[in-house]
Amino acid sequence: MVSARPRIQLLPPEVAARIAAGEVIERPASVVKELLENALDAGAGRIEVEVDAGGIDRIRVLDDGCGIPPDQVVDAFERHATSKLRSEHDLYAVRTLGFRGEALAAIAAAADVDLTTRPAADDAASTVRVRDGRVQHHGAAGSAAGTSIEARDLFAALPARRRFLRAPRSEARAVAQVVTDYALAYPEVAFRLTSDGRTVLQSPGTGDPRDAVAAVHGAEIASLLRAGHADRADEEGVAAEVSVLAGPPSLHRANRGYLHLVANGRAIQSRSLAHAIEQAYAGLMPAGRHPVALVRITVPPDQVDVNVHPTKAEVRFRHERFVWSAVHAAVRDAIGAAPVADYRLSPSDTDRSLSVPASTEAGAIPLPWDPGASSSPPAAVGIDAPASGREVIAGAQGRGFVRPDEPIDDDDGREEAPSLRDRLPALRPMGQVDLTYIVAEGADGMYLVDQHAAHERVLYEQVLGRRQRGEQASQPLLEAVVASLTPSQASLAASVADGLAMIGWVLDETDGAALIVRAVPADLRGPDRADPARGLREYLDRLEAEERLTGPDRVAATLACRAAVMAGDRLDAEQQRALLVALEGCETPHSCPHGRPTMLHLSRASLDRSFGRPERSR
Ligand code: ADP
Ligand code: MG
After folding, report:
1. C-alpha separations of 429 from 220, 432, 525, 568 in Å
2. C-beta 100 within 6 A of ligand 1
3. Which of 9, 25, 30, 38 most suits a substitution to test ligand 1, by most atoms within 8 Å of the C-beta?
4. How far, in Å, from the CA of 35 to the mean position of ligand 2?
5. In 3D, which of 586, 303, 354, 613 has the Cα closest to residue 469?
6. Residue after which a domain boundary falls, among 296, 314, 343
7. Percent of the chain with pLDDT strictly greater than 90
8. What pLDDT score does 17 carry?
9. Looking at the structure, do residues 229 and 190 belong to the same domain, yes or no?
10. Are residues 282 and 332 in the same domain?
């Protein structure tokens, strides 16, 4: 790589003009970012960053990369001088982090800079001093192979700019964020960040992203993450490969600080892709909480434009929807959730998402108000699923037995969250508490099941399962009825017309603010079915209030909620049993579509412990 390295040259003016110019240097963190990118482009395996006073007083970045040949060190500080880009054509397939040739020039204009560099093949290093923006070449020096750059007194000569700097503590935090981003993007590189002499981040450079996450968020979180993958390409060469490490839904945080996106080796910000990640958890995580995930995306270099943002913090994918769905799928893969056909996907994507086991469908539950429904018990599913021996159910954010973020103690002492796919053991209902909870016994202790949340989960998966099979469960009305609607109900109905049809509403428009109801969803509760016009209005009102989910998930979750048994409904023994069996058949039985837990579990071991009994062998 050293000998093959192209010379540093000035970009031709027409190329320079095409570069998204910007004020690259606005704070210490931007200096650190540019210097890290240079070190990474130089192929460094070890990078050390030192800052004093948040980098305002001093920043030093040391790498063991390819170095700069002595005859080019001065050129490196010229504006638009780069070894990475030759022609305008290269701009459309950038393979390096830097390419504008601006950073060293901009840093040298904003601070006093000292650079020492030695290509591995050379015997001596060369040094450069920049004072008052003037470069002085100082010839040979002794040094290890690689490059060290130090920038002192940022903006000292530019008081107007210096005034915009924040307190050293917050500048230090911004620097740490930048180093964190790159440590996660380059697990094969060993990073060390020292702030005022204190080591604040150190990644081992093993190449395993989990080790990098451990360095950033701690070993405990890292051990809970699961790997997922999506690798997609179409006939036209549109491609995206996504590797993720994602936390279980029970691991959630109050902000997005634990979401990390990397695209072609660049740490990026993207609202849309953050949304793709969070959508993968839709219905599994409480509203307003955010998952932990490291998402690494690789696309062919000509399918991403990195030249849209001055600090390159944002990129533009040529096939954004394609990347969106690959990210979504990879996260679903990691968390062990069935892929969900998404309304955003192109038809070919959807096909891929449909490979869901048909067993998703949990049996129908004979409901008290539904004398017509079959009373024969649905086929039992998962009866011989082994009891897991764990004390907590995934997604058990309940205040009851466990704190939300508490890691789960497995029997062998290893901390591990149960997979979303962990089926329930066969549960034997023992009665209702408060006409709200079903008490049940399983192979490992006691379960307390929220009857509404559980039924919601069952119905929700049934609706999604039917959608994936292209089925519709509609109950035609003997006589169509006219439902008059408020303007907002009417416009909502129009905007989700497809979704309504999908779940079984057969509606015709009138010329006024009313709809003709010809059929209702088969799942609808008796009272709603008896008065379909009212049922439709109530459904639309609830849909409007459902702000936490979007798209078809929202339509389905609303139906599930509207159709599910309520707290206060009396369930006889057979109905309790049928509900539990149906829940056992669910893909993700542990939480309702909104992410609330469906149950609490008190294991035998935990019962014994609570009563001070000696441990029993199983
Ligand atoms: P760019 O990175 O956009 O090319 P810079 O101003 O950041 O522009 O750097 C100019 C040139 O100096 C780079 O193209 C590269 O050849 C050289 N360079 C800068 N930093 C290093 C480094 N740490 N190791 C090796 N070469 C470097
Ligand atoms: Mg650079």
Report:
1. 36, 8, 23, 17
2. yes
3. 38
4. 7
5. 354
6. 343
7. 34
8. 58
9. no
10. yes
Nearest ligand, measured from the Cα of 76: 1
Cα distances from 468 to residues 339, 340, 356, 524, 591, in angstroms, run 10, 8, 8, 20, 21
8 within ligand 1 shell (Cβ under 6 A): yes
Contact 464, 337 (CB under 8 A): no
Q: 457 near 588, Cβ under 8 Å?
A: yes
Whole-number Å distance between alpha carbons of 214 and 12? 44
**Atom nearest to 102 CA in ligand 1:** 6
**pLDDT reported for residue 14:** 64
Residues 24-54: tens digit of each pLDDT: 688 999 999 999 999 999 999 999 999 999 9
Instruction: Determine, yes or no, domain membership for 18.
Output: yes
Nearest CA to ligand 1 atom 16: 83
State the residue for tokens 């837990």.
597
Whether 597 is in a domain gets the answer no
Q: What is the pLDDT of residues 192-203, one digit of tens each?
A: 999 999 999 999
Supply the pLDDT for residue 97. Answer: 75
pLDDT digits (tens, 9 = 90+) for 54-67: 999 999 999 999 99
Q: Is the CB of 82 under 6 A from ligand 1?
A: yes
- What's the whole-number mean pLDDT along residues 415-428? 58
pLDDT at position 362 = 34
> How many separate domains does the chain show?
3
Give the position, in ligand 1's atom list, of the atom nearest the Cα of 100. Answer: 3
Return the ligand number nearest the Cα of 100: 1
Least confident among 422-431, 443-452, 490-499, 559-568:
422-431
CB of 42 sitting under 6 A from ligand 1: yes
Range list of β-strands (E), 319-452:
428-433, 437-442, 445-450
Separation of 262 CA from ligand 1 center, angstroms?
Answer: 22
Please, what's the largest Cα pairwise distance for the chain? 95
Mean predicted lDDT score pLDDT of the chain: 79
Q: What is the CATH number of the domain that holds 512?
A: 3.30.1370.100
Q: How remote is the CA of residue 55 from the centroid of ligand 2, in Å?
A: 18
